[in-house]
Give the backbone structure.
Amino acid sequence: MNSYIETLQPYPFERLRTLKEGIEPRQSPEIFLSIGEPKHAAPAIATDALINAMTEITRYPSTLGTPELRSAISNWLLRRFNAQVDPTTQVIPCNGTREGIFSLIQAIVNRHKEQPLVAMPNPFYQIYEGATLLAGAQPLFLNISPDCHGQPNFEAVNPETWRHTQLLMICTPGNPTGECLSLSTLKKLIALADTYDFIIASDECYSELYPTNSAAPAGLLQACAELGRTDFSRCLAIHSLSKRSNLPGLRSGFIAGDANIIKPYTTYRTYHGCAMSLPTQYASVAAWNDEHHVEQNRTAYDEKYTMFVERLSPHFDIKRPDASFYIWLEVHGDDQHFARELFRVTGITVLPGSFLARTSEGTNPGSGYVRIALVAPLKECSEAADRIVRFMENGYE
């Protein structure tokens, strides 16, 4: 067996199951706010396209995807980020961001170079770490900080560390904080990539879940476009329909950017055997071409955030983040104990923040926080808010 498999850490939800073992919650039904799986209805425009294309299941799909899908993605990037991406050379579909990120890191890391590093925010989406370890590199954990708007302090990284960095993973809007990197910060990171010769991969799968009265979050390709960097050198953006369009089971996303990276990565994917099925591609074209369902989605999250923040404000320093469907809630104590007691008393499952992070520079930056995913329907989220308020009023210890 591949010895690198032994370096993998348990997934956060495995640890959560262990944390809850043997506990019979006092209240029912149970309410699950731990997993970032949207529960809003899937858009009919996509599901209809999927059903109507089912006869295409008899054909092998190509790794590159159909010209129609790549054009739909390219057109969406132009509308959304004002980034003119060549659909023939600068876009490739992937089966959701998890698969895309995992395979991308495998393809990028050169384990034969001295001390290869993949830098990533801490806390992080655990695929970043797992893919890094299995590629034979080491994760470089960049602790998030409230002083940096819930994102890492990139300026604190020393030049020698940057010289060993082959890939910088960023997540904007962030998971779990929901906070975004500004255009100016993205441009500074591009300058760092030029100076130290590393690649930036920007996980932007939450980019469309922002408040309806706010400006849309910036993206890495948008920063490139403003710099006149039309080749998107060293830069890749990763997007998905899972959150934007409530289609997590469709497994549809894409990676776009530097053609000099996309080309060899396409070769890797051809051998990897991960071409997107044709019915999925048809559904994806329909979803990327439609914004109405995305606007309805944002309105639904607006309502849940407004209610949840208002009800919990007397007990927590709570606010809505820049984007995403998460609340990164500071609980001022042991986050694992809080999550376990909340489940025992109320039947609500949240995710301890320490499960999403690693100890770095002497601290686990997820400790003392829990991640709440407002993915359930409004009525269920409202019930959860009421239960949490009673939990706090009854003297949680």
